Amino acid sequence: MYGNRSEDPDASDRPSLPDRRFAALRGCERLLSGVRPQSIRERLADLAGPLPDAGPGPDAAPGSDAAPGPDAAPGSDAAAGPHAVPDLDGRPDQYGDGVVRTLEHRVAGLLGTEDATFFPTGTMAQQIALRIHAEAAGPRTVVTHPLAHTDRHERHALGVLSGLRSLWPTTEPRQPTAEELRALDEPYAALSLELPLRDAGFVLPGWAELVELAAVVREEHGAALHLDGARIWESAVALGRPLPEVVALADSVYVSFYKTLGGISGAALAGPGGFVRTARAWRHRYGGQLYQQWPFALAALTGLERELPRLPGYVAHARTVAAALARAFAAVPGARVHPAPPHTHQFQLWLPHPVGELEEAGLGLAEDTGIGLFGAWRAGGPPGLSMTEVTVAAPALDWTAADVTVAATAAPTRARARGRAGASREARAPARAGTKDPVRGPARAATRAPAVRPKLRLRRRGAAGCCPSRCWSRCSCWCSSPVPASPARATATPTS
What we know:
This protein has 18 helices and 13 strands. By secondary structure, the chain is an alpha/beta fold. Strands 2-8-7-6-5-3-4 form a seven-stranded mixed β-sheet, sandwiched between helices. It has a four-stranded antiparallel β-sheet with strand order 9-10-13-12. It starts with 16 loop residues before the first helix and ends in a 49-residue tail after the last helix.
């Protein structure tokens, strides 16, 4: 009755695009956007390892690195430090206690709120937050943005599940202004403000603008301000303010554990104690009271310790990367980096080519050279243009501006060379012994000898002896054993 867009009669003969991208990026030695994807086994090993020793944060007081005791109140100094090391030999959580409660204390301490509660998804957290504010205020109207996650990526859940109606102060691809809020001619219960507004290009208001927006909503209109803070961690860095100062402007805030922090999944809703208690009750009604959530909590704690101290470096280096990309594509009609400069460590890159061509070029470059420039591409903007979101994280920090410009400029040439008949992998790779390759970097140039691995025919995916990842692509994990000899051939023959 319902069509399945994933049905493909030829799917068994080739890897899916996500599988191919996963294998290609795992085989890369340099990544400009994002991080190297982990296998399930690697994720499990990461969870079992010790939490990164990031040390106390820049605002930590001397002696604040002790672990919170069982009676530490959320938001207290004892609960705020980077120190709650879970006992991996202890009892797993049950319905939100144990390591999940440790995570909630940690988040409340970081944000400066009275309490916080874990949610399996941000969508559920947002729905419940706005529902609580609407029921407390009376009006069933909430102010949002047409590009916000609540309106664009949640299948109209505000209206379907909670009976709420969205009111847009602007449809422009930017944050609303205080004057646009003042121009609204009907009451509303809350403003949901996404920081940054991802689908507009990860754009933020200025600090003074944010303070004025909060004053209009809370003081002039008597409504609640809810922060969609899925990426508030880097927003605070970009705004130049501590997290508690940003969060203090609002009545509630939602944070994500996987978008910037690299967790498995999950989110938290933070605010006053009474608000959080009500949110827990609604979480149970919405089906979010899960029996055990320790993998999500452990991954979130790891992300908080590992990534938060690195975010200032990511945000600063994103400007270098964006400027270099802008120079590399300056002569390409329609190409642009947005916003310029980036507001956080993420930004958009637009190029005048179809999505399919850009996907193939990027994957070919990664498979052939071990260099990954960008992630997925998508259409939906101006006609003839495709867009990718660039995320500057740890792997990009060793890229100089010259590295970025050279790699981006050379990418089309390398992609075309990939398909030339008779060209070998070795012939297409630059000479690297004892020299610095401006794209691959000094480490690769000094340590890797010219490739001599023969290219063997890959077996059908799933055949006995095939490579464990079953990637079906020419990357570092491809099958290294020959196809069984056919009756007409005694041995496997390397292919060109």
